Amino acid sequence: MKVNEKMISEIASIMKLEFSKEETTELTNELNETLSMLNTMQEVDTTDIEGTFYGTVNQQSYFRKDEPHQDKEEVKSLLANAIDSEGNQIKVPAILEDGEGGA
Amino acid sequence: MNLHTKSIEELHELLVNKELTVVELVESIFDFIEKTEPTVGAFISTNKEAALAEAKLVDERGVDADNLLDGIPVAVKDNIVTKEGKTTAASKMLEDFTSVYDATVVEKVKKAGMIIVGKANLDEFAMGGTTETSKLQQTVNPWNSKKVPGGSSGGSAAAVAAGMVPASLGTDTGGSIRQPAAYTNLVGLKPTYGTISRYGVIAFASSLDQVGPLTRTVKDNATLLNAVSGKDDKDNTSADLTIDFTEKIGQKIQGLKIGVPKEFFDENLVEVHVLQTVHQAVEQLKKLGAEVIEVSLPHLKYGVPAYYAIATAEASSNLQRFDGIRYGYSAENAKSLEDLYVKTRSEGFGSEVKRRIVLGGISLSVEHYEELYGKATKVRTIIRNEFEVALKEVDVLVGPSTTTVAPNIENKEGQEPVEAYTDDVLTVGVNLAGIPSLNIPVGFHENMPVGMQIIGDYFEEATLYQVGYAFEQATDYHEQYPTLEGGTQE
Q1: CB within 8 Å: B382 and A27
Q2: Contacts of residue B343 in chain A, CB cutoff 8 Å?
Q3: What pLDDT, on the 0 to 100 scale, is given for residue B488?
Q4: Between chain A's N and C termini, which has fewer beta carbons within 10 Å?
Q5: Which of B251, B252, B269, B249 is nearest to B261 (CA)?
C-alpha cells in the first residue's frame, strides 16, 4: 500500500488542510514509511474476527436524550470565544464565493 | 522544612497536625516553582492568586482530617478544560482559549479540596511521546535537562518529579501517562477505560483516551483515583463503580500469580539495561512471595500499527471541530467560509497533528479502510483477547514500560515519525484492550529512571496498587529525587 502526492492532496482537502508542494512531497514520503509499518498488520489472519470499535468493556455504544438547555451567562462566554457575533448568533464569513452557488 | 519531596500522605499529616497551613504550603510551592520552572518548563500557565485564595478558604474552614486530598496542590494537564485561566492543548489553535466549564475531573479534584496550581505542558493535542511537539514551550526531564520528560503528559510528570507539586493529572491514549512516569521516576496509572469521565478532556482518540493520576507513591495514586473516578452523566462511557481502589494496599502478594509476557522482555526490542533492571524487579516480586509465570502475547507487536490506524482515524474525526469559527484560532483575511476552515486549520495545527489527521483520513478512506482502520479493529480484538486469556491465567502481568530510558532532546527531534511510533510497542496494547496499567519506579540506568508496568484485568486497579505498594515497601527507588541543575532542590 502506497500513497502518492495526488492522493495526499485529495485527503488534505477533505480534512480542510492545505500543504505547499514541498510539504506535500515530504508528507507523502513520511506517510509512505508509516504506511509500510502499518501494512505489517496484513500478516495477521483476521478471518472471522469481529472488529473492536469501542473502548468500553461490554463493547456497546451508549445513547442519551439530546435535551437543550440554556444558560444566559454560558451563552455570553461561548460567544466570547467565537470569531464574531451579532446578538446571540455567531457571525461567519460568506459561504458563497463570488456570488456563485455552492454545493 | 523540605516540602518538595513529600507525598500527599505526609503533607496531609503536617496539615492536620497544624505544623503547616495550606497557605504556607501553596506559598512554598510557588516559591519553588519560581526557582525551578525556568529550567524545567513544566507549566503552560500557573495561577498563584487563585490558588492562594483557595488555600485561604481551606485554612479558614479547617483541613478535613479524614480527607487525604484536602488542601493538597495538584497540576492538571492542559488538554483538560478549566474555567479558570486558559486551556491550550499546547497548540496555537487554542493558545487563547478559555473554557466555559470545568471538566468533570477538575470539578472532582476541587470538590476533594485540592488546589489547582497550574496547567501542565504536553505534546500538541497529546500527540507525541516527548512533549517536544508542544507549540508553546519545551519541558525538560528534571533528572537531566538534556533529556526529554516523555510525553504526551511530559509537563504533568516533570512538575511532580521536580518537586513542584505532589500530584498531577495526565491523559493516556497510547502510553502518555506511563511512559513519562517511567522516564521521571513516578507512579502513573492508565485506568481501565471508563473509570474516569472524559467530559471536558479535549478528545484525541475517544475509544482509547483515559485520564489518570501521576504521584510519588502508590498510595497517593490510589487515593487520587478514588477522588476522580466514577459514573458521570456527561460521559456515557464512564462506568458505574463502587470500588475503593486503596482496599488491597498493604495486603501481602504471597501466592499472587504474576505473568511475565516474553514479548515484553525481547532483547531486540528493549535496551539491555532496562531489561536487567526490570528483571531485578521481577526477582524482588518473587522474594515477596509472588509466583512468576511466563506467558505470551504473540500479537503484541501488531499493536503499534493497529493503534496508529485507529488513533489517527478517531483523531481526524475529533479534530474536525476546530473550524476557526466557534472557538480557538481564526486565520486572518479568509475570503470565504471554506477558505477560513482551510487557512485556520493549516496555520493553527502543528506538523505532527496535521500528519496524523491526514493519516487518519487515509485510514478511513474508501480505498484503504479495509486494510487500515477495518483491519486494525480486528487486530485490536485479537490483542484484547490475548490479554484477557493471559489475565485469566495470572493475576497481573509485568514488563518494562519503555524500551529505553529517557532519550536526549536532540535525538528525538531528528527521529523519523515512524521510529517514534514504534517506541510505543510496550504501552499501546493496554489502550487497545481497555485494561489498566500502573507504572512504578524500579531502578536507574546511568542516573535515569527505569519504570515497570503492572497490567491487570478490567477494573482490577486495586490489585495493581497492591503489587505496586508491596514492591514500594521493599525498595527505595521512589524515594530518589533529582538534583536539579542550579541546586534548587533543598
Answers
A1: no
A2: 18
A3: 40
A4: C
A5: B269
Q: Are B3 and B11 in contact (CB under 8 A)?
A: yes
Look-up: residue for cell 451579532?
A86
Distance of residue B464 Cα from the nearest chain A Cα, in angstroms: 18
CA distance A54 to B376: 13
The string of pLDDT tens digits covering residues B316-340 is 999 999 999 999 999 998 989 999 9
Please, what sign has the CA dihedral across residues B49, B55, B61, B67?
Answer: positive
Is the residue at A58 inside a domain?
no
What total number of domains does chain A contain?
1
Instruction: State the cell numbers at A60.
Output: 456497546
**pLDDT of the residue at A44:** 98
Give me chain A's average pLDDT, please: 89
The helix/strand count (H/E) of chain B reads as: 16, 11
Domain count, chain B: 1
Q: Are A46 and B306 in contact (CB under 8 A)?
A: no
Peptide bond into B134 cis (omega under 30): no
> Domain range for residue B328?
313-366
- The alpha carbon of residue B434 is apart from the nearest alpha carbon of chain A, in Å, by 6
Cα B57 to Cα B53, B71, B345, distances in angstroms = 6, 9, 42
> Is B392 among the residues known to form the active site?
no
Please indicate, yes or no, if residue B434 is contained in any of the structural domains. Answer: no
Task: Please choose, from the candidates B211, B224, B297, the residue with its C-alpha nearest in 3D space to the C-alpha of residue B261.
Answer: B297
As beta bridge partners, residue B399 has: B453
Quick one: average pLDDT of B37-64? 98
Give pTM, 2 decimals.
0.96
Q: Looking at B176, B363, B401, B437, which residue is catalytic?
A: B176
> How many angstroms separate the CA atoms of B367 and B296, rounded?
34
Res B107 pLDDT > 70 = yes
The full length of chain B comes to 490
- Residue pLDDT, tens place only, A18-69: 999 999 999 999 999 999 999 999 999 999 999 999 998 887 777 888 888 8
Report if residue A13 sits inside a domain: yes
Q: Choose the closest CB to B337 out of A12, A14, A95.
A: A95
Classify residue B155: in a domain, yes or no: no
